[in-house]
Amino acid sequence: MFLRKNRKRFSGEVYEYWTLCETVRTERGPRQRVVASLGKLTEEDIEAGWEDLEALLDGQPVRGKQQRLGQAAAGQEERLGWELADLSSLRIERAREFGSVFLALALWRRLGLHELLSDLIEPGREEIAWSDVAAVLTIGKFCGQASELGIAENWYARTALEDLCGIPVESVNDDRLYRALDKVGAHKDRLCEHLMERYRDWFGVRFEFLLYDVTSTYFEGQALRNEKAARGYSRDSRGDCKQVCIGLVCTPEGLPLNYEVFAGNRTDVTTVEEIVAKMEDRFGQAERIWVMDRGMVSEKNIAFLRERQARYIVGTPKSQLRAFEAELTENENWIDVQNGVEARLVEHPDGDGSERFVLCRSNARAAKERAMLARQMDRLSDELLKVNRALRRRAQLDAGKVERRIGRWLGKYPAAAKWIEAELIRDGEDRACGLRLFCPLPEQGHPLLAKGAYLLRTNCTETDPAKIWRWYIQLTQAEAAFRSAKSDIGLRPVFHQKTERVEAHLLICFLSLALWRSLEMWMAGKGLGTRAAKLVEAVATIRSMDVVVPVKRGERTINLRLRTVAKPDEDVAILLAHLGLHLPKGSKLVQNVVEKKR
Questions:
Q1: Which of 130, 251, 430, 556 is the residue whose CA sits 20 to 30 A from 417?
Q2: Which helix (H) or strand (E) element contains residue 544?
Q3: Distance from CA of residue 355 to its chain's centroid?
Q4: Bridge partner residues of 453 (DSSP)
């Protein structure tokens, strides 16, 4: 997306306004589409200084006098008048990241997490409130920091969080951050309940649908002190590392509601009962429809959901499509639910009428799956033909070795292995001397060759297949939440070893995901699209800095160090204005150093 400046002439006068545009692909090629009209860019009518930071972060505009360059800091009675400055020695120091951490801290406070943690964690002898340290941890994850050690040693000193949170750089160390993890980790359930309340108040979310999906994250190291760390199916293609599985429950908008951490070798289908029971026991089951993909489906899970009188929409294994081969070949009673996607209600031959089945087929998905199958079949055929040519040139006495080699290639291309059969040819001396290949494909038009079909199963009373399909396709929001957690927040890898510490670390990742998805909802409500990564990238260009002004007083030179925030670019200022975020204006005197007489 990008901002475009427009000019309009009316009655002899020229008016300027801005629009937010995006480039989209169409059948006629790339085109530019207006997402939102942002109006005229004017000077901010709100002038708040550094002393009003708390009000700015809470979204409360403050009208006040802008602190002028050279004005004394709070608590200093001396007020500078006109001074003779040495402009040749004027310099900028300590340029630090401001925009991204300012945005993240504003989200943290607007979700009310600072107040909640202040109430939950009882104060002790600590010099810095644990709620403030938790904010630093979550903002670090929001900005993509991989570990708490990286936050303490490198990242925090590069940001303006010292000014925004009031925590000195020397007070941010790995020991304090680890202890804050332990403090916050004990309040996971209350934090999840609070987020549900804030989603309802801020965005009007009703929680009619609950999306559930599972992902995994792997460990760096052996994770010997983590009882849940184990090797299993890795979504990150890191089967060489131990991992844990994470079951996430979110809304159709992608707002995270709750999560559970499971052992790394646990299969998805075994997690359903536990997560459903915990969610419904805590929040009730009225007006809840569970949406899950086919990896969660088993007859045992379906019976469990029925026993709890829960409603569900789930995908089904591909094997169940065999019962609907006749319906796949029919061309009647199909409803267009999306461009290139059709659906129809069907009755299961062995069903009792308590469930509905929705048969879907997609032309684009069919073309993709056929191309993937053809590519696998070509590659597998090439490898098997290489084996055949090698055996034709020189017969192999050890037939078992040849069979193991063939098995490895069949395992590498499992989809093609269903259609290609390889028979070992032996000579009179029982040596392997070649291969005989078969490809028993069914006749053209067979339903199994008509890729792109899938089956949905539900006990909802809705009879419109288009609505059921749209409800199910909302699972893409859960997948998008996982992508945000892994790509933007840095969920993987995990460097901790202890079980409790790992779960506390994942809680911080969950809170930062809540910030990220809340930002997308905030943007959508303001007509700014949902590309939060683009907004964060744009806002990250804003820096805070110290302007060092040498002032001559007689024979002495006094360095006035004034902290200020750089003026954002015009397009970034427009985005912040539409979100209602206003940066602190002016400068504050942070240091007054007297240099020696020259």
A1: 430
A2: strand 543-553
A3: 34
A4: 361
Q: Distances from the Cα of 559 to the Cαs of 49, 91, 96, 592, in angstroms?
A: 22, 10, 20, 6
**Cα-trace Rg, the chain:** 31
User: Looking at the DSSP assignment, which residues form a beta bridge with residue 494?
Assistant: 219
Q: How far apart are the first and last CA of the chain?
A: 55
Which residues, including other chains, have CB under 8 Å from residue 477's CB and lie 6 or more apart?
211, 250, 251, 252, 253, 254
What are the CB-based long-range contacts (under 8 Å, 24+) for 444-449?
445/329, 447/321, 447/324, 447/325, 447/328, 447/329, 448/325, 449/370
Considering the entire predicted model, what is its pTM? 0.80
Q: What gap in Å lies between CA 285 and CA 276, rounded to an integer?
A: 9
Distances (CA, A) of 528 to 27, 53, 492, 531: 25, 25, 29, 8
What is the block-wise mean pLDDT of the chain (598 residues), using blocks of 10 residues? Answer: 70 70 75 70 49 74 45 42 74 92 95 94 90 96 91 94 92 94 94 94 89 92 91 90 94 92 93 90 77 89 89 88 78 84 82 82 83 89 91 83 89 88 83 84 51 87 89 88 84 90 94 95 90 92 90 80 90 90 81 55
| Residue 12 falls in which region: left (phi positive, over 0), alpha (psi -120 to 50) or beta | left
Cα(180)–Cα(220) distance, integer angstroms: 22
Beta pairing class for 256-263 and 243-250: antiparallel
Distance between CA atoms of residues 168 and 545, nearest Å: 16
Q: Which domains does the chain have, with CATH numbers?
A: 48-54+68-96+542-598 (no CATH), 99-185 (no CATH), 188-355+459-525 (3.90.350), 366-438 (no CATH)
